[in-house]
Amino acid sequence: MNGTRPSEVFSRLVSPTGPAALPNRSKDSTSLAPEENANMDQAYLSTISALAGTIIGGATSFATTWMTTTSQAHAARLASERNKREELYGRFMDELAVLYANSLASETVDYAKLTNAFSLRGRITLTSSKPVVDGADRALKFVVDLAMGPTRSAEEMRHMMDDRNVDVITEFARVSREELQELRVA
User: What is the pTM of this model?
Assistant: First the structure.
């Protein structure tokens, strides 16, 4: 092939006699002229570079999409969990407030409402952190003890409302709010 122009090589390759008609053709590429070998190396190099670029680009695109989807799913799960807990804590505080008001004015216990409060406290135990569970327990025990105690006078009720040590519902709300804020940050 030395001294043969590329167009002649091409015409011989596609000729009816085929590649066998090429003079001195061997199986290895070492018999090719140096410039033909360089052209072939450049062709391989550009093809391999294009394939590598495509693979790297595809892998990068896949990784980016996967990471974005994963972080969005995680944020959605946290938002859902936060909303469920917020609704649960609110219902528990509503039940406690009703029980608290009834216990101040009456010596009897409303067992239907007490059952609802214990049910909500059980759900809080399943899903919440220890400070929230402890706050729920303290609040519920306080309200039950208050309901089983004697009827209070208006002056005693007013004093209890102002006493920070007796305001267990607000304490439960505080620890619940802290937990909900932690869920927002995570």
Answer: 0.62
